[in-house]
Amino acid sequence: MAPSRGKTFVLALLLAVAPLAVAAPAGATPLRSGGFVDFGCATAGKLHCLGKAIRSPKGSGPLLTSTPVGYGPAEIQAAYHLGGLHANGRTVAIVDAMDAPTAEADLAKFRSTRGLPPCTTANGCFKKVNQNGAASPLPAPDYGWAMEISLDLDAVSATCPDCHILLVEASSPDSDPLMTAVDTAAATPGVVAISNSYGGTEDSTILAADAHLNHPGIAITASSGDSGYGVSWPASSPYVTAVGGTTLKKASGTTRGWSETTWKGSGSGCSALEPKPSWQHDTGCAKRTVADVSAVADPATGLGVYDTYNSCGSSSWCDALLSLGLAQGADGWVQVGGTSLSSPVIASVYALAGNSVTSGSYPYAHTSGLFDVTSGSNGSCGGSYLCTAGPGYDGPTGLGTPNGTSGF
What we know:
Elements: H1 5-17, E1 36-38, E2 48-49, E3 52-54, E4 64-65, H2 73-79, E5 91-97, H3 103-113, E6 126-130, H4 143-159, E7 164-170, H5 175-186, E8 191-196, E9 198-199, H6 206-209, E10 219-223, E11 241-250, E12 258-262, E13 269-270, E14 289-290, E15 293-296, E16 303-307, H7 316-324, E17 332-337, H8 339-353, E18 370-371, E19 401-402
Parallel strand pairs: 5-7, 5-8, 6-7, 8-10, 10-11, 11-15
Antiparallel strand pairs: 1-3, 2-9, 3-17, 4-17, 11-12, 13-14, 16-17, 18-19
């Protein structure tokens, strides 16, 4: 039977755009397509992940490549002076919601392609558990959160190749399950840092929930947000290191070899509810100010991550559907950013440093270990430091970005 006119049109459309898993040379200049797409893990009334991917020029889905794109371990370590450092068995915990069924396999592909040693369940480097610390039952899978998990695991690997990684998956993106997952991570031997790449609006419940973020001796990081000037929780908690975002570019004419400016999506500002921690002394906020420090977050200068959990399979037809936004997830290499990237980067720097920390106080007493970010803005706040970078502390980039580990 001949295909209907509607089916013929769909087939012609797919043929016009497939295959879309185009090749990109490893270590290439990051892609800049002119737009980003959210990971798709925002649910009304719940906390949501804070990652963005480069959008495909063919549609509303992510731009997929068959080889690595964007920055990788070499660039992250060079930009932040982390090369040759070791975590000596310390563990970074990643707290996210929902399950990523392909997490370990995708992590293996990222690490082997990027020349990193294996990090697997079998060799004791990687472990995935539910919010209560058990291997099963795991939460229901979710395509958007799976991409977030790939970003988090790959960001830790890129920043700290010998860090052990604990992935704790909460049963839903609500504050209670996620805070249970944080407590589970904190109670796990070897964990020295916990990254939280999600956020939501402040409400009356956050002050009680803060108790789950209060784990002296463990560095807890939280993404500051991806919507520009404005505050989200848990970044506003006084018990975390709130991590803003930058645009990171190579700058061959400078001593450092890199330049950073404020990423316009980086969250910042004054908390309406959280008390100001004793170690924070800026005068523009009577309560907690966000952020504390920062790292690369702009998807246009983002990390290339590997993720294959999707709703359609592994064919070129699936890649076409994904790029058009007609299927969910990813199937290969995707260039990503958001403060979902900067949070695990900073958590990994804490792990490399190996210091005993209390909340986000350590960088404030060790500013010489930071690169000051002095330009760029994330919105309108009357031109004050709360949304405009300048010398010293500012809201979007905090005290700055890592210059080695002495600031952490």
